[in-house]
């Protein structure tokens, strides 16, 4: 049922599940998914396919942790859990579109809740920020993927930050080559050099107290510079695309 252009209101479990599956299938770069743990079995096929497509999947599940779950490594890049059902139903795909509503939509078939699917970049960005800045921080880390194979090119900057953080945490020296835009004068250029810091709160241990901060510090020939994601303002550069590689053995 269409409420207005770009919005769809869903009032049945089956319609909401279909909408979530559609969003997961549409993702090319990143997904944030907050659902009751009891609903995971309905989304395994789509989440597994997203992992196979190398999509970043941040999965937050809530409810009774004694409920059997599929192997997290098959369906997510990182997983956190919350015992209490205090998290709304929330999905974003590529920070472009998503769905939000009462989590009871997937646990109580007669409660009269509803969920809204939206195709709006600004709303998706707001929901993505809320997911990471509030709900994700309240969760307990249950699973994080291994460091990916390098070299690897990322268009989803938060994925590059996560994998860089994991590599640095493991003591693996890495280097980056990034196509960037200066946040000072909007000129486009390419920078490269060793990655010396990753500031983030996606995985433990968090290296930033600001949940919205996801940045890399790259040691260039002209000195260290900071790189942020889309819309970066505090960093020296906004990243368009970045390739991370291991530092070659000398």
UniProtKB/TrEMBL annotation:
CDD domains per record: PLDc_like_TrmB_middle
Top-rank taxon, per record: Archaea
Residues making up the signal peptide according to the UniProt record: none
Domain Transcription regulator TrmB C-terminal: 7-246
Name recorded for this polypeptide: Transcription regulator TrmB C-terminal domain-containing protein
Organism per entry: Haloarcula marismortui ATCC 33800
Lineage of source species: Archaea, Methanobacteriati, Methanobacteriota, Stenosarchaea group, Halobacteria
């Amino acid at each position: 049922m269409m409420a207005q252009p770009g919005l769809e209101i869903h009032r049945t479990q089956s319609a909401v599940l279909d909408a979530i599956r559609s969003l997961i299938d549409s993702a090319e770069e990143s997904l944030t998914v907050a659902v009751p743990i009891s609903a995971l079995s309905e989304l395994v096929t789509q989440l597994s396919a997203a992992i196979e497509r190398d999509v970043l999947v941040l999965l937050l599940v809530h409810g009774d942790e004694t409920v059997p779950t599929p192997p997290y490594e098959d369906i997510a890049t990182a997983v956190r859990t919350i015992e209490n059902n205090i998290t709304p139903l929330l999905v974003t795909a590529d920070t472009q579109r998503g769905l939000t509503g009462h989590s009871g939509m997937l646990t109580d078939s007669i409660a009269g809740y509803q969920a809204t699917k939206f195709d709006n970049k600004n709303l998706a960005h707001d929901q993505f920020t809320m997911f990471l800045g509030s709900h994700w921080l309240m969760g307990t880390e249950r699973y994080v993927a291994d460091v990916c194979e390098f070299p690897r090119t990322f268009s989803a900057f938060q994925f590059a930050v996560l994998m860089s953080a994991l590599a640095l945490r493991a003591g693996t020296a890495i280097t980056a080559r990034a196509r960037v835009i200066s946040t000072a004068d909007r000129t486009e250029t390419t920078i490269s050099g060793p990655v010396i810091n990753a500031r983030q709160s996606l995985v433990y241990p968090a290296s930033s107290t600001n949940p919205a901060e996801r940045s890399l510090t790259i040691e260039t020939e002209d000195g260290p510079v900071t790189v942020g994601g889309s819309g970066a303002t505090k960093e020296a550069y906004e990243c368009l695309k970045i390739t991370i590689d291991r530092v070659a053995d000398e």
